[in-house]
Design a protein that fits this description.
Layout lengths: L4 H21 L1 H21 L17 H11 L32 H9 E6 L8 E7 L6 E5 L7 E5 L3 H6 L7 H9 L4 E5 H7 L15 H14 L6 H11 L4
Antiparallel strand pairs: 1-2, 2-3, 4-5
Helix pairs in contact: 1-2, 1-3, 2-8, 3-8, 3-9
Length: about 250
């Protein structure tokens, strides 16, 4: 994320205070702090999104040092333990796919395509909801992908930054069905991505898969950390160490 220095400094000051307050006030307050930090990371990304015509590199910047420092502090608040069994997991545990959780009349998949693509056109008769075409500056690969709905729709897929299967095995079994629905449709946890790269990632955690585009890795693990904190999920030791290693280079 290419966040301005003044904005990052201000955000870091606020987030540091939130982290301290959460650590002093107990688990419930810390969870609230995690949500606040996650929202701040998401807001910063949205405000710095590349404009029309921007190249792939414009959307693939590394995290600003202020954001990285906030992610490091947040990482320290996330429990570390082994994966729970995958028993009982199904996509249905996270509600119907691409639900309209924000009640804007459009499903989440099309909302994310609209957010992430440029030169967007919509399918007639869909109240401008269904995205027909556009261009994606793909953050996973650093290349530009032309999206056209139809036979090649899968060229661009919507990835869960924290895969739902991984979420299930690191705490999502213990949150409510409503929270799981929100997790599966939260813009913080979603990103339009190169289809083959998304398939390669599958349900991998950060110790098993990272984007080929190294310039995006700081933002990638910062967002993973924010999602884990927001939904009270834990990390495995290898996952935690991989994320910590990446964040240590984001300075």
């Amino acid at each position: 994320m290419n966040i301005s220095r003044s904005a990052a400094t201000k955000s870091l000051t606020v987030l540091a205070g939130l982290l301290l307050a959460g650590s002093l006030a107990g688990c419930d307050a810390a969870a609230h702090v995690g949500a606040k930090i996650a929202d701040a990371v998401h807001s910063a990304a949205a405000s710095q999104a590349p404009g029309p015509g921007a190249g792939a590199g414009a959307g693939a910047g590394a995290a600003h040092p202020g954001e990285a420092a906030a992610a490091v502090a947040q990482l320290a608040s996330i429990p570390v333990k082994g994966k729970a069994p995958k028993t009982g997991y199904s996509r249905g545990q996270f509600g119907p796919a691409w639900s309209d959780v924000d009640h804007n009349g459009c499903d989440t998949r099309n909302d994310m395509l609209r957010r992430d693509l440029t030169d967007v056109t919509t399918k007639p008769g869909t109240r401008d909801c269904v995205i027909a075409s556009g261009k994606l500056a793909d953050k996973y690969t650093g290349k530009t992908i032309t999206f056209t709905r139809g036979e090649n729709s899968a060229d661009v897929q919507i990835d869960h930054i924290i895969p739902l299967s991984l979420a299930w095995q690191t705490g999502a079994q213990q949150i409510s069905a409503g929270q799981r629905l929100q997790l599966a449709n939260d813009p913080l946890n979603l990103m339009s991505a190169d289809g083959p790269a998304n398939q390669q990632k599958s349900d991998s955690s950060a110790d098993a898969w990272l984007p080929a585009n190294k310039a995006f890795r700081c933002e990638y693990v910062a967002r993973q950390t924010a999602v884990k904190a927001k939904y009270k999920l834990w990390m495995t030791p290898p996952e935690h160490d991989a994320i910590a290693g990446i964040l240590a280079t984001c300075k």
